[in-house]
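Progress note, sequence design subtask.
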């Protein structure tokens, strides 16, 4: 299994012959947010088997980013999201439902994150992949995390895109509390250090760098048996080897 964190909640997961891309956000600018990480190498995404969409907030469902992927790539999404995807093939899932992608089981998991886009309310979900990898999307802690099974890897959001967080998100401490329930072998913090409001300037802000370090410290206290691996945008982790 190999994962490459591309920034924000966008992760390329290669597992069991399938290549999956989560919540693609590939642009330099999204509304008032500017990208503070290197550009994504789109050539490396030419062989994606499916996109896994956790919810329809604009920093997770970004239609211009989806259009940068091959037209034939389908999207797995929460129930009600397909109408927002235009002509692209979509498979909608409720919590507990699953679909097979290139021979790999992808199951929808709960998420605690209220989502509205325009007049539409579409529930948020997370995913387990091959019963080994958990992608949380955006969520707060919920009790069912304790019954996810034996996980090799958890991709855990630890912040957002600004100097503060709203409800339904994990900060470093809450993310460490989630680890205590999930008990994966390895955790990779995501959803940090990639986009930031343009009006706050181009110089580094501590919230662009501190969340994963705070998360690692909190995890050492609350979930000491979990190995935390902090990746930079574009960096890969091979769970059968060392960092790429």
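Output:
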């Amino acid at each position: 299994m190999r994962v490459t964190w591309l920034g924000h909640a966008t992760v390329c997961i290669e597992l069991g012959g399938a290549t999956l891309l989560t919540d693609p956000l590939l642009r330099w600018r999204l509304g008032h947010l500017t990208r503070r990480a290197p550009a994504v190498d789109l050539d490396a995404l030419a062989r994606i088997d499916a996109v896994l969409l956790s919810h329809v907030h604009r920093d997770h469902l970004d239609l211009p980013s989806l259009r940068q992927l091959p037209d034939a790539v389908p999207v797995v999404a929460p129930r009600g999201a397909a109408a927002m995807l235009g002509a692209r093939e979509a498979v909608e899932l409720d919590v507990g439902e699953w679909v097979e992608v290139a021979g790999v089981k992808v199951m929808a998991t709960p998420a605690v994150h209220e989502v509205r886009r325009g007049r539409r309310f579409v529930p948020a979900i997370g995913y387990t992949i091959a019963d080994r990898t958990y992608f949380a999307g955006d969520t707060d802690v919920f009790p069912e995390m304790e019954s996810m099974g034996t996980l090799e890897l958890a991709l855990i959001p630890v912040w957002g895109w600004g100097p503060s967080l709203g409800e339904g998100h994990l900060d470093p401490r809450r993310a460490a509390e989630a680890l205590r329930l999930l008990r994966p072998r390895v955790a990779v913090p995501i959803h940090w250090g990639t986009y930031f409001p343009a009006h706050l300037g181009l110089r580094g802000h501590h919230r662009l760098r501190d969340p994963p370090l705070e998360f690692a410290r909190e995890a050492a206290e609350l979930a000491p048996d979990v190995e935390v691996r902090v990746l930079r945008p574009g960096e890969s982790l091979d769970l059968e080897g060392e960092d790429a």
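Residues 210-222 form the longest helix (13 residues). Work on this subtask will continue into the next period as scheduled.
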